[in-house]
Amino acid sequence: MTKPARQSDLQTVESATVAAARRVLRMEIDGLRALIDSLDGCFDAALELIAAVRGRVIVSGMGKSGHVARKIAATLASTGTPAQFVHPGEASHGDLGMITATDAVIALSNSGDTAELADLVAYARRFSIPLIAMTRRATSALGEAADVCLLLPESAEACPMGLAPTTSTTMMLALGDAIAVALLERKGFSEQDFQILHPGGQLGRKLLRVADIMHEGDEIPLVPSGMLMHEAILMMTAKSFGCVGVADVAGRLIGIVTDGDLRRHMGNDLLNAPVDAIMSRSPRTIRPRALAGEALNLMNAQTPRITCLFVVDEQKRPIGILHVHDCLRAGIV
After folding, report:
1. Could you say which of 47, 153, 177, 279 would form a disulfide bridge with 255 (CB–CB 3.0 to 4.6 Å)?
2. How many C-beta neighbours within 10 Å does residue 184 have?
3. What's the DSSP call for residue 281?
4. Residues 121 and 246 in one domain
5. pLDDT in tens, 60-104
6. 158 CB contacts (<8 Å, ≥6 apart)?
7. Are residues 142 and 214 part of one domain?
8. Containing domain of residue 238, as a range?
9. Distance between CA 51 and CA 183 in Å, rounded?
10. How far apart are alpha carbons 232 and 226 in whole angstroms?
11. Which ranges of 188-247 does DSSP label H, i.e. alpha helix?
């Protein structure tokens, strides 16, 4: 019968496992520091080569390098550089057709002599497709075939046997991120570009703009200055936003009448009063290109809180209206 573990035994095991984890992380951090120090003109050359490509960046690798290559391709594609992963084994059986003369290839191999990459490398050389190597050995078959060789510095694998790809794949992954971000900055890739490529999930919601979810056109509750309140109230009721905007003869927003304004001015003369006498002047507004999260924060920051914002252009003319429920339905919190 197995004896229950004592607390002291658990602490000893935990200390050993934590020590192993710290050793791995330190070795991988050391590898990244060495990678930082090793960057040179080859990185610039690789960026120039990729930036000149009219097609896609094809990223390939075998085994653990292949998993890293998939991630690099995904990161490139999501930050404005069209990219695709091609498995080197499948490439030898027809998938070379995915690679065109307008593409460039980034091939990952720690040793640089991965047999499965041979056909892909030969294909790139035969059709003058730019080839970037990410490898530890410049004198390897891959390193010597490449137009640009991004060398990984000599760093021990964190595996105690020195066999399992750990430090080397961490360096490859980080180098891929460096390439993607450097390209992003070079292209001036904006938040709006990012939102277009990331419409789903929390990331997409954070980058959603007011113009994407606002009500516009006939949905905007808007009346002209001088209109009597009994007509304005009909407009408020028809549009169901609990407010109505007031515009001057030039179409600029000069005020807003809310349910609260109606309660404050309740009396026998209310219905025959002009909206100008009831409205709150200089209402809070928002730009159409503002992030939806900014609009929600603005509504929540008012005392008392407000539930609607008019969306205006540079001339302060209303082009939309945003309700707090629109933000909540879009997942903005």
Report:
1. 279
2. 19
3. E
4. no
5. 999 999 999 999 999 999 999 999 999 999 999 999 999 999 999
6. 23, 24, 27, 28, 164, 166, 167
7. no
8. 210-329
9. 7
10. 10
11. 191-197, 201-206, 210-213, 229-239
